[in-house]
Specification:
The structure holds two protein chains of two kinds. By secondary structure, chain A is of the alpha/beta class. Chain A has helices at 13-26, 53-62, 72-80, 101-112, 121-129, 146-158, 163-169, and strands at residues 2-5, 31-34, 46-48, 65-69, 84-88, 116-117. In chain A, strands 3-2-1-4-5-6 form a six-stranded parallel sheet, sandwiched between helices. In chain A, α1 runs parallel beside α5. The model of chain A is unreliable at 165-170 (pLDDT under 50). Chain B has a seven-stranded parallel sheet, covered by helices on one side. The chains are: A alpha/beta, B alpha/beta. Chains A and B meet through α3, α4, α6 and α7 of A and α1, β5 and β7 of B.
């Protein structure tokens, strides 16, 4: 099962149509896509414009691969559930977002090696063709970094911001 | 952007909880949808000792925090003035009613508004800038620095001596 998702903010048919064509060429009948507010008529994949957060999580859990825009909701959920994820950033110049922050996010995460990034449709097809080159992603723990949690907790309790961690970070 | 007069700023960094309470402090956790919400959920363990109320923009998120009080406000960003105004009214009403001791947000526009209203009501405020802001802080993040008592970024290269500070990320 492959799950493609583009979030709720706007259509991202460039991603959906690429996945649709790829599924057609490769005879994959197990692709489901959440398309956002899009009128794209898919030929080879099942689509739904919006799904609720519970179904979203279930779909990610059931998938062996997630393909998504470079939105943090999708990326974090995939990593939490230990799923391989390929992201393609939305581009402002193509009217896919207000700005190019997804491009920056994708680049930074790709450097960390935690996710695969396709900057173009062709790169997405190439990455899908080489599915087997991915290793299984390591499951992310269910919570944020312990330092971050304890800093916020301490601040809530006392209004104090631990100066030792502050110094350590500078 | 709506200008909100800052009525009172003397509540900065009290050493004890605002108003001594034997009960658990009231915490309002606010975010917009998608990644902002997912990030808020990833720090919720830090709120364990508080009475937590969540505020977000989709009714469908309620099931993920079913043990807590939950409000939905209008989704808004700084490009949609009317939606932003509606969102501001709803948040003002919620904060007036809840009178939280602490307001926490992971962004974006509704969180910014919540921090400003919370500040006016004497709450301690925490802003965790989204991990999606890799190259620069979000605009509301940059503005919010001036009214967040604790201002955090999730990227070390964005940290500055006077804030935002980097302690770690939600990943």
């Amino acid at each position: 099962m492959i799950f493609a998702t583009v979030g709720t903010q706007g259509q991202f048919d460039r991603l959906i149509s690429t996945v649709d064509r790829w599924a057609g060429v490769n005879g994959r009948a197990d692709v489901f896509a959440q398309t956002g507010p899009s009128d794209y008529q898919s030929e080879h994949i099942r689509t739904e414009r919006f799904i609720d957060p519970t179904e979203f999580r279930n779909r990610v859990e059931a998938a062996s691969l997630v393909i998504s825009h470079a939105g943090m909701g999708s990326i974090i959920t995939a990593l939490e559930l230990g799923k391989r994820i390929i992201v393609m950033p939305r581009r402002a110049s193509l009217g896919e977002h207000r700005n190019d922050h997804q491009l920056a996010t994708a680049k930074r995460f790709a450097q960390q090696g935690r996710i695969a990034v396709a900057f173009t449709e062709q790169e997405l097809v190439d990455k899908l063709d080489q599915l087997q080159v991915f290793d299984k992603t390591e499951r992310l723990s269910a919570q944020a970094s312990p330092d971050l949690i304890s800093t916020i907790r301490t601040f809530i309790e006392s209004g104090q911001f631990r100066s030792e961690s502050r110094n350590a970070s500078l | 952007m709506i200008r909100i007069p800052v009525v009172s700023r003397q509540t900065l960094l009290n050493n004890s909880m605002p108003q001594s309470r034997s009960v658990r402090p009231k915490l309002l956790a606010v975010s917009s949808g998608g990644g902002h919400w997912v990030q808020l959920l990833r720090i919720k363990r830090a709120f364990e000792d508080c009475e937590v109320t969540f505020v977000t923009v989709h009714q469908s998120y309620r099931a993920q925090v079913s043990d807590h009080k939950f409000y939905v406000v209008n989704d808004a960003n700084r490009w949609t003035k009317f939606a932003l105004l509606k969102s501001a009214c709803q948040l003002a009403w919620i904060i007036w009613n809840e009178k939280p001791d602490i307001v926490v947000s992971t962004g974006a526009a509704p969180g910014y508004l919540a921090l400003r209203f919370g500040r006016m009501m004497g709450a301690r405020t925490i802003w965790l800038d989204s991990i999606a802001n890799v190259e620069q802080l979000s605009m509301s993040g940059d503005r919010i620095g001036r009214c967040a008592d604790l201002w955090l970024t999730q990227w070390p290269h964005l940290a500055r001596p006077d804030g935002p500070h980097y302690i770690g990320s939600v990943l």
